[in-house]
Amino acid sequence: MNQISWLAVPTDDRAHEGVRKLWNKAEANMGFVPNVFRAQALNGEQFLAWWNYFNLLVNKPGELSNIERELMAVVVSGLNRCVYCAVSHGAALREYGMDAQQADTVAVNWRHARLSAREAALCAYAEKLTLHPAQMTEADLNPLREAGLDDAGILEAVQVIGMFNMTNRVSSALGFVPNAEYHGQKR
Predict the structure, then answer these.
(1) Rounded to the nearest 10 degrees, what angle do helices 100-109 and 83-95 cross at?
(2) Which of 24, 31, 41, 172 sits a CA distance of 20 to 30 A from 112?
(3) Burial of 52 from C-beta contacts in 10 A (0-12 / 13-18 / 19+)
(4) CA nearest 168: which of 94, 56, 79, 104?
(5) Distance between CA 87 and CA 104 in Å, rounded?
(6) Domain boundaries in the chain?
(7) From what superkingdom does this record's organism come (predicted)?
């Protein structure tokens, strides 16, 4: 296996039992194990705690659609220049139905993509919270409300944005490499 992290990556026989179960489930569902699952497995309990929260925010029904969550993930990851997350969540955007050209445009500059008013409001909010968190004000919620989000939707957006900012920092700090499978997904 090629290097996927600047840290050691446990082998199957040395990984936490719960992590191995997740790897097997990913392999069965996706046809591969995301490198982020392997790269964070060195501390199995912490990885599983992260995964449970990540999975709750990103993969379960909530106030936001899957495309909206992945859209914010790509915007945040692009702004943070996180290669792993921009590539993997760009693939997820395509999986959920965004055409490849639009998904690629979002990754570079969301303002040039054809987005709904709600999607654009989420992207603008994600951008400000990522780049200028100390400058956030109550007034920043108005465009989200005008776009149809209620308080539960706004909270979910903030949690997703926060999760991706944290995950981007972990991935970038440790040199996580995206799986080759992501690059060709839905193209």
Answers:
(1) 150
(2) 172
(3) exposed
(4) 79
(5) 9
(6) 12-59, 66-173
(7) Bacteria
Q: 66-173 in CATH: which number?
A: 1.20.1290.10
Q: Can 12-59 and 66-173 be said to share one CATH topology?
A: no
Give the chain's length: 187
Within a 10 A sphere around the Cβ of 141, how many other Cβ atoms? 17
Q: pLDDT, tens digit, for every residue of 63-99?
A: 999 999 999 999 999 999 999 999 999 999 999 999 9
- Residue 53 amino acid letter: Y
pTM: 0.95
Instruction: Tell me the two tokens of residue 123.
Output: 């992207």
Rounded to the nearest angstrom, the gap between the alpha carbon of residue 44 and the centroid of all alpha carbons in its chain is: 20
Q: Which residues contact 93 (CB under 8 A, 6 or more apart)?
A: 67, 70, 71, 74, 103, 106
Structure tokens, 118: 């709600």
